[in-house]
Amino acid sequence: MKRTLLSILVSIALVSCGGSKKATQSVSSVENTRYTAPKKNSKIASSESSKSELIYLSEIKESEENRLRFNIINNARQYEGTPYKYGGTTEKGMDCSGLVYTSFLEEGISIPRVSRHIAEEGKRIKTDEAIPGDLLFFITGRRSKQINHVGLVVDVLPGQILFIHSSTSQGVIVSSLNEGYWNNAFKEARRIM
C-alpha cells in the first residue's frame, strides 16, 4: 500500500512539474511573454524604449550600429503573421529573403534579394557569437545543396537563439534554432553589420 501510494505521489509530482509542457511549449508563447508587438511604422529611437520591448537586448551598448539592429528587428516583427508568398515583400505576402531584404531596406541598408546571395555578405560567425540582428542561413529540403532560407536573429537566450523568418507553412513567425527541423537544416550564421 505504501509503495502504491508513493508511486502515485511521485507520478503526480512529475506531471505537475510541467515536464511534458516544457518539451512541447511553442516559441510563440515564449516570445509573446518577452516582447510587446511593435506598431506599424514604429521605430526604436533610443535604448530606453528598447529596454521595455526587448528585454535581453537591453545589455547591448547604445550605438548607431545597435540602434540600426533594433530598428531592423522591429521592422521584421511588424510583419509577424504575414502569409508566405514566393517573391513577396509586402504585408500581402513575403518569402524569407523578402522579409530580411525589406527589414534592412527600411533602414536604408541595401542587401541582395535572394538568401544564397545574402549569405555572401558580411562575415561568417559562430552561433555562440550570434547577437540580435545577425542572420541565420539554412539548407532546406533533401535535394537542395545550397542555402535557400534565411532568418533574422531577434533574441539570444541561454542555450537558444530565436529568429524571425517566413516559413512556407506558417508565414512570418518567430522560431527557435533548437527546433529539430531548423537545427538540422542550419548551415551558418553571418553578421552583416
The radius of gyration over CA amounts to: 19 Å
Helix content range of the residues, please? 25-40%
The average pLDDT value, as a whole number, equals 76
Please report which band the strand proportion falls in: under 5%, 5-15%, 15-25%, 25-35%, 35-45% or over 45%: 15-25%
The separation of the N and C termini measures 66 Å
Number of strands: 8
- Largest beta sheet: strand ordering: 3-8-4-5-6-7
Biggest sheet, in brief?
A: 6 strands, antiparallel
Explained architecture:
β5 and β6 (160-167) form a beta hairpin. Helix content is 35%, strand content 21%. Mean pLDDT is 76; it is low at 1-58. With 193 residues, the protein is an alpha+beta fold.
Question: What brief labels describe this structure?
Answer:
alpha+beta, two-stranded antiparallel ribbon, six-stranded antiparallel beta sheet, disordered N terminus
List the helices and strands and how they pair.
Layout: H1 2-16, H2 19-24, H3 27-32, H4 47-53, H5 64-77, E1 89-90, E2 93-94, H6 96-105, H7 115-118, E3 123-125, E4 135-138, E5 149-157, E6 160-167, E7 171-176, H8 180-185, E8 186-191
Antiparallel strand pairs: 1-2, 3-8, 4-5, 4-8, 5-6, 6-7
Helix pairs in contact: 5-6
Brief overview:
The chain is an alpha+beta fold and 193 residues long.
